[in-house]
Amino acid sequence: MPGLLRSASGALTALEIELMSKQLARASMISLAATVMMIVFNAAGSGAAAQVSNPAVVSEPTLKTVPVPAADASATGTANADLAQPSADAENATAAVSPATLTQLVAKQDVPEEVSPELKCLAGAVYFEARNETLDGQLAVARVIVARARSGRFPDSYCGVVYQPSQFSFIHGGSMPVIKHGSASWHKAMAIAEIANDGSWQSQAEGAMFFHSARISPRWSNRQRVARIDNHVFYR
To answer: What is the DSSP string of 112-137?
Structure first.
């Protein structure tokens, strides 16, 4: 068929030229596709590499340093002084703590210059009846007088109880002997009288309303013995 074979001169036929054109076009398309794929691949690879080489960093909160003002020497001195010395409230709280012993409580009593007649009668009974005994013995005597005055079975005052006839041997002719008011024994007796009147310390014979000297043995079988303290025996 004419046009399908090469010419005698060796020139390409039209069919060969068409085939070569198609081959060139196909090769161009393949080359273009390969180029596109390489571009896409390189772009994707660059992104992954970037993510690996630049990992996400979680920001941490930044701590702000607040400048501290210089200490005032006078203020520091005051603060140290407050720590070194107890406050007035602490001293008052310490003073308010109850004494551990009757001796301490007696030492804390502030005997006023002006004392009521009732308290004088109570202190006078302690002075004459038990001034040579221990503080516990003196308090027990005073608490018996207080209990009698409040019982309703005896006179309702300290003086009435002390001066009741035939009750206390130191009462002579309805009067009390002279008291040495400047003596330590009187000051103790006054302190014990205040404590007994206030009820701020419990007696070892609390509740007793009778007592007698340990030198005698009255027949008090109808009374309950409470305690013996020093030279006295106490009963209910």
So the answer is: -SS--HHHHHHHHHHHHHHTTS-HHH
User: Is pLDDT at 27 greater than 80 in this prediction?
Assistant: no
Rank 90-99, 135-144, 165-174 by mean pLDDT and report only the highest: 135-144
Alpha helices (runs of H) in 85-198, residue ranges in sequence order? 88-95, 102-108, 117-130, 135-151, 158-162, 184-198
Cα four-point dihedral sign 33, 37, 39, 40: positive
Residues in CB range of 208: below 8 A, 6 or more apart: 140, 143, 144, 147, 226, 227, 234, 235, 236
Whether the model pTM is above 0.70: no
Fold of 102-235: Arc Repressor Mutant, subunit A (1.10.10)
Task: Give me the pLDDT at residue 33, please.
Answer: 53
Cβ neighbour number for residue 101 with a 10 Å cutoff: 10
- The better pLDDT of the pair 216, 83 is held by 216
In the structure encoding, which two tokens stand for residue 196, read together? 């007994």
Mean pLDDT computed over 18-44 = 55
How far, rounded to the nearest angstrom, does the alpha carbon of residue 3 sit from its chain's CA centroid? Answer: 120
Ordered by start, the domain boundaries in the chain are 11-53, 102-235
Q: How many CA atoms lie within 13 A of 14 on its CB side?
A: 4
Q: Distance between CA 16 and CA 22 in Å, rounded? A: 10
Mean pLDDT of 201-207: 94
Other CB atoms within a 10 A radius of the CB of residue 159 amount to: 20
